[in-house]
């Protein structure tokens, strides 16, 4: 069973529908006991970094998410990916989950923000489990980007500047785009995560 973390912010139903369409049993929960039983954890997210951190802390989820990320495959989507980092400055400076080194900052670009639309993935490295998705289109909606060392960047995209699109630290993976809204490519990325990280 795959657990989708419910902290009141995110495309929870869309993520659940995507998993169901792939044939995976899943549940939406903020209960530690249910998260403990899951094979994989997915942290979705839509909204601001600061508001999300406040909700996670209000629900007492930070300790359990930090602990489970050491043993279980853990996927952060969009804002959920940004929460994987040490800090973010959207809405004020806030501490993230610190599962991947780095910070989240506003995209530096002359282009219109938020960045909304389809962009291609530039996959890094031949041994990358996502290498089959080179140049595939995925759907982005965001104004902030991760600032992290290169060794944690699995794929990037370009929107007036280079933007990390997929990041990884062990079994912790983040996707800045919305795979659940990215058609067959997005479903393939979710399936690859579930199959390759166990």
UniProtKB/TrEMBL annotation:
<keyword id="KW-0963">Cytoplasm</keyword>
<feature type="active site">
    <location>
        <position position="178"/>
    </location>
</feature>
<dbReference type="InterPro" id="IPR010139">
    <property type="entry name" value="Imidazole-glycPsynth_HisH"/>
</dbReference>
<comment type="subunit">
    <text>Heterodimer of HisH and HisF.</text>
</comment>
<keyword id="KW-0378">Hydrolase</keyword>
<feature type="active site" description="Nucleophile">
    <location>
        <position position="78"/>
    </location>
</feature>
<keyword id="KW-0368">Histidine biosynthesis</keyword>
<dbReference type="Pfam" id="PF00117">
    <property type="entry name" value="GATase"/>
</dbReference>
<dbReference type="InterPro" id="IPR029062">
    <property type="entry name" value="Class_I_gatase-like"/>
</dbReference>
<feature type="domain" description="Glutamine amidotransferase">
    <location>
        <begin position="4"/>
        <end position="185"/>
    </location>
</feature>
<dbReference type="InterPro" id="IPR017926">
    <property type="entry name" value="GATASE"/>
</dbReference>
<keyword id="KW-0315">Glutamine amidotransferase</keyword>
<feature type="active site">
    <location>
        <position position="180"/>
    </location>
</feature>
<keyword id="KW-0028">Amino-acid biosynthesis</keyword>
<comment type="function">
    <text>IGPS catalyzes the conversion of PRFAR and glutamine to IGP, AICAR and glutamate. The HisH subunit catalyzes the hydrolysis of glutamine to glutamate and ammonia as part of the synthesis of IGP and AICAR. The resulting ammonia molecule is channeled to the active site of HisF.</text>
</comment>
<protein>
    <recommendedName>
        <fullName>Imidazole glycerol phosphate synthase subunit HisH</fullName>
        <ecNumber>4.3.2.10</ecNumber>
        <ecNumber>3.5.1.2</ecNumber>
    </recommendedName>
</protein>
<comment type="pathway">
    <text>Amino-acid biosynthesis; L-histidine biosynthesis; L-histidine from 5-phospho-alpha-D-ribose 1-diphosphate: step 5/9.</text>
</comment>
<keyword id="KW-0456">Lyase</keyword>
<dbReference type="GO" id="GO:0016829">
    <property type="term" value="F:lyase activity"/>
</dbReference>
């Amino acid at each position: 069973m795959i657990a989708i973390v419910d902290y009141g912010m995110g495309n929870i139903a869309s993520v659940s529908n995507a998993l169901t369409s792939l044939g995976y049993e899943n549940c939406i929960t903020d209960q530690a006991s249910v998260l403990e039983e899951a094979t994989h954890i997915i942290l979705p997210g839509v909204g601001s970094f600061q508001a999300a951190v406040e909700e996670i802390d209000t629900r007492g989820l930070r300790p359990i998410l930090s602990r489970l990320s050491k043993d279980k495959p853990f996927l952060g989507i969009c804002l959920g990916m940004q929460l994987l980092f040490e800090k973010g400055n959207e809405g004020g400076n806030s501490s993230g989950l610190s599962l991947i080194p780095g910070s989240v900052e506003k995209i530096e670009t002359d282009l219109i923000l938020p960045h909304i639309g389809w962009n291609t993935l530039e996959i890094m490295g031949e041994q990358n489990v996502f290498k089959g998705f080179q140049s595939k289109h995925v759907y982005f909606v965001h104004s902030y980007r991760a600032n992290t060392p290169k060794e944690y960047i699995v794929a990037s995209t370009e929107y007036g500047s280079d933007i990390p699109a997929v990041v990884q630290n062990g079994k912790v993976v983040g996707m800045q785009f919305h795979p659940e809204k990215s058609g067959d490519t997005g479903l393939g990325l979710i399936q690859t995560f579930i199959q390759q990280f166990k």
